[in-house]
Amino acid sequence: MNAYLRSKKLWLLAAVVLSAVLSRFSGSINGYYLQVLIFIAINIILAVSLNLINGYTGQFSLGHAGFMAIGAYVSAYLSKDKSAGVLHALGGGEFAIVVVFVGVLIAGGLAAALAGLLVGVPSLRLRGDYLAIVTLGFGEIIRVVIQNTDAVNGASGYSGVPSYTTLFWAYALAALTIYIVVSLIDSTYGRGFLTVRDDEVAAEAMGIDTTRRKVVAFVTGSFFAGLAGGLFAHETTYINPAGFDFQKSIEIVVMVILGGMGNTAGVAFAAVLLTTLGEYLRFVAKYEWLPDWLRRIADNRTIIYALVLIALMLLRPQGLFGGIRAFGGGPARQLPKKA
After folding, report:
1. Residue 318 lies in a domain
2. How large a percentage of the chain has pLDDT more than 90?
């Protein structure tokens, strides 16, 4: 076990070093491709954090985009409107920017975690479809509240956010997210998540506080969603409530299901695959030689995600990597089949 722990730490260190090296040469990468690479890392964080809730704990959250929105807006507001004094006090150099950026990312993550706690404590006693409806409603409430908040320009969107996100920050935090989730699941405490997922009644009979386990997973996943939102805001420098709608939550859910619920490596790969596919479809939609109906499908991601889900349910309900030994937690969870 000690060798396994050391290997995970070495993997994390190698990922951080590689992120720093890639970031060093990011100036030679085309701006569009650089942004796609950063979006891939952000989606890895979102998918892996949701996998902790849906895959490892057996819940079904449909409001992950809401927690991402909280992290994005809180971090963007703090870095744009409230960080001038800190930057000035620290001399305004690169070190000052790093301090401010790390601070606002953590603040956004903590705000999202607090929201996760507020929605998790009363609702995580529910199960299945009821929990999905509650989290879906919460995500929409967050979006509507932001639309009517003048401090962040409401529905007009919030612009002028400092461009602090780099390849290093995106991939270093993606690696850290994977490391923390895997380490948590591999711990004695984390095994309780798997017990709750496999048989909640049996877990309660064994003395496990199932509600507490679910709340911990929900809050942890919400925190990392908030971090991803902060990275997103400081990459695009403009955020709009419409970018955190139900479709965004569905996009993250599809990544988790495609990769295999309860399989961290598979979910991370699915995030890479779907992000790349989504960007490629933008070009497909512009091919004039294609039939209009096919171009409309390519331009509508919702249809693509629906087709992917239908195909998975029919052909491989356990996901692309189901049955393969996952990073932490054993084999990936298989979706129940109808008799």
Report:
1. no
2. 41
